[in-house]
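Weekly puzzle thread! Below is a chain. First person to post its structure in token form gets bragging rights.
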Amino acid sequence: VELKDYRETIIFYEAPHKLLRTLEHIKKIFGDRDISVSREITKKFEETIRGSVSEIIEHFTQHALDPNLNPTEILKNSGYAEDYIRAKFKKVTGKTPKAFLSDIRINHAKFLMEAFGSSLPLSEVAEVCGFTDYVYFSKRFKSITGKSPREYRG
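Winning reply:
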């Protein structure tokens, strides 16, 4: 049986910052089948999103790459004291919410550069990944990867 024809339930565990890339691989290997993605919010509550692989990728991409996404506002609206939830977030992820969001955006930028090569201008990569300022994108990219976007794309 080829993997794309496998219809039994398969469970994958993935770190949040690697989720988009893993979903792309799942789509490539298994096709655009219906899936369910769950994440633990607290020890008592979780969020589950259901749909095709493409729909799930679109959901995460739309939200994580939204340039208006403000981690501070999300923390304020969480129902917890902002300092408490920020500390919990850092304890779970090892990063501040802003750094975590930057990692998601930069990982997606790396994916786009690998997938599209030089056919997608770096300014467009930055914009698609939620950066409205290319200079800031370039600085964040270099601080996370150790290379400028141009050097990374080679």
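Puzzle host: Confirmed. Bonus trivia for everyone else. The chain has a mean pLDDT of 83.
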